[in-house]
Amino acid sequence: ENLRSQTQVRIDEDFIGTINHSAKYRNGATFAGKRVVVVGIGNSGAEIALDLLEYGAEVWVSVRSPVNVVPRDPWRVPAQVNAMCLSVFPTWVADGVGRFAQRLQYGKLKTYGLQESSIGAATNLVENGKVALIDVGTMSEIKNGRIKVLPGITRFESDEIQFDDGQIQPMDSV
Q1: Minimal CA–CA distance to 18: which of 5, 40, 3?
Q2: What is the pLDDT averaged over residues 96-122?
Q3: Could you give the CA distance from residue 93 to residue 97 in angstroms, rounded to a whole number?
Q4: Most buried of the four, 74, 84, 133, 135, by CB within 10 Å?
């Protein structure tokens, strides 16, 4: 109910689906066989989407903002170790390495309905406090179509959600 009062999207009081915040998420067991949209593809959202899929939910991710994606273990080295090593260089160097790793691993993000950030991952962290998505397998599921990407949400109605592109999808849970 708190989410209903905080959102900037119009939520019809008759929305019959459930709305859950990531802070209360434990696992996808109760979502098996359900149509679920995860709002946002930050690290929590991406991991929740993957977990929901593994529990048998039909999963969409609503993504409004551009993203930077970093493979968890680029070049067989954990992303955090790479980040620490790159932190001694100017951010533009780390941004370039990050962009290279992203392009090498995933190709063009727009192919999958995602908008690539014009701000590099290192710069975005330093200047805006925004962490890149450290991919633990979600991107593979997006690439193979098992997790679908949708734009931002425009409004909720009874058992449907309308997205910024005008598309309307029935959903059981958010």
Answers
A1: 3
A2: 92
A3: 6
A4: 135
